[in-house]
């Protein structure tokens, strides 16, 4: 089993911003640029970093590496679409969600390469924690692009771990959308536990991920879905998380914890209906960090994901995330640097947040204190525990 005491890394270079569906698309690479500028200005990354987080180069994945998860016909279709800029809707290319753009294969392969490098460094024992905030493209299916995701970098990274000797990998997805692509790839593989907390598919893309979706015949209980009602805020989200995630991770005993951190669960996100604050999201990041140390010897691979409030949310949320990855969490009351706010004003003619907090103090009621069947949230938590806990030998009752 690899062990290490080295620094943490964020795998990044500016060319990753070439993953760009165009100026009218919600998933603007500006969110990544603003995040890295904020993280650098606050000393989280870069030459003046006060944390243990260092920058690592981001390689481009080979076609053979991508093909460990994806059908070669999809790879050929993406390469062709990137040359011709012509749609291929059989493979999910040229839709509103996934417009084609020049050289899209290289851009998507670069994201995959960056994530796999993060996975490689953790499994090789070079670092304990590694992040790729441009990754987390969890909707891509083996044979098609979907939901802003061309290739599924997370699934390729997990497959890399399995191919290099890992026997148990846990994946926790806290994006507001169901992590359907990663779940689908490992649906029949009991070596991978996938847990997705998301707004219910009754209200939101991709319309899947319900409590009864528990994995294939040979992997019953290794897909876990917690479908949350719209309007769920910090207290409810954290209640749900702590009622489901820690018990399952402790029982599964993973060798590596992989987490996807779409921050589109925030109240200001334009594409969904959960009501978390920056402070609630930060509490989730801290909890996952602590669980990585408790259950996986600290081996933690972190990716980004969704998040479409480009100025108000994503840079602050992911800067908090990177600071936690680097072992030096930021005080929520920290001011955002003046030079960063000025850049936002000049670049976008918008006013950036002045603090790294939304002014909330996240708290939640522990599930062991009992549940209320009259509330949608508690019914959702109860349904997930009833569907999955007995399959792991756990008591589903409070």
Automatic annotation (TrEMBL):
Domain of life: Bacteria
Domain Histone deacetylase span(s) in chain numbering: 25-323
Coiled coil: none
Record's keyword annotation contains Lipid metabolism: no
GO molecular function, one term: histone deacetylase activity
Keywords: Acetoin catabolism
CDD domains named among the record's database cross-references: HDAC_AcuC_like (cd09994)
GO biological process, one term: epigenetic regulation of gene expression
Pathway entry: Ketone degradation; acetoin degradation
Entry-linked InterPro entries: AcuC, HDACs, His_deacetylse_dom, His_deacetylse_dom_sf, Ureohydrolase_dom_sf
Family to which this protein belongs: Belongs to the histone deacetylase family.
Descriptive protein name: Acetoin utilization protein AcuC
């Amino acid at each position: 089993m690899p062990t290490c005491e080295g620094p943490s890394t964020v795998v990044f270079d500016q060319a990753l911003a070439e993953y760009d569906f165009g100026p009218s698309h919600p998933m603007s690479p500006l969110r990544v640029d603003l995040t890295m500028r904020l993280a650098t200005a606050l000393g989280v990354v870069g030459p003046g970093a006060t944390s243990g987080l260092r920058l690592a180069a981001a390689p481009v994945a080979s076609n053979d590496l991508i093909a460990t998860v994806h059908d070669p016909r999809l790879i050929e279709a993406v390469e062709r679409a990137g040359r011709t800029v012509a749609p291929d809707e059989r493979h999910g290319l040229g839709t509103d969600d996934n417009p084609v753009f020049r050289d899209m294969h290289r851009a998507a392969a670069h994201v995959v390469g960056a994530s796999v490098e993060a996975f490689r460094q953790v499994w090789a024992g070079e670092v304990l924690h590694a992040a790729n905030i441009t990754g987390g493209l969890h909707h891509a299916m083996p044979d098609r692009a979907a939901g802003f995701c061309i290739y599924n970098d997370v699934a390729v990274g997990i497959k890399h771990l399995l191919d290099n000797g890992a026997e148990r990998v846990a994946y926790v997805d806290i994006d507001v959308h169901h992590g359907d692509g990663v779940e689908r790839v490992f649906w029949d593989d009991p070596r991978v536990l996938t847990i997705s907390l998301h707004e219910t598919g009754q209200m939101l893309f991709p319309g899947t991920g319900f409590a009864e979706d528990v994995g294939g015949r040979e992997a019953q209980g290794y897909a876990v879905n917690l479908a949350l009602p719209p309007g769920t805020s910090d207290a409810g989200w954290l209640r749900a998380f702590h009622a489901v995630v820690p018990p399952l991770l402790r029982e599964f005993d993973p060798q590596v914890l992989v987490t996807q951190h779409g921050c589109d669960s925030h109240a200001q996100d334009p594409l969904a209906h959960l009501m978390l604050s920056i402070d609630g999201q930060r509490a989730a990041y801290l909890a996952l960090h602590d669980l990585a140390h408790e259950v996986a010897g600290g081996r933690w691979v972190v990716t980004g994901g969704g998040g479409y409030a480009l100025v108000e949310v994503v840079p602050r949320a992911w800067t908090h995330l990177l600071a936690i990855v680097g072992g030096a969490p930021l005080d929520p009351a920290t001011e955002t640097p003046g030079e960063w706010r000025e850049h936002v004003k000049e670049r976008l003619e918008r006013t950036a947040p002045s603090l790294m907090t939304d002014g909330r103090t996240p708290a939640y009621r522990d599930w062991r204190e009992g549940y209320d069947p009259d509330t949608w949230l508690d019914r959702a938590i109860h349904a997930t525990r009833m569907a999955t806990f007995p399959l792991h030998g756990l008591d589903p009752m409070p």
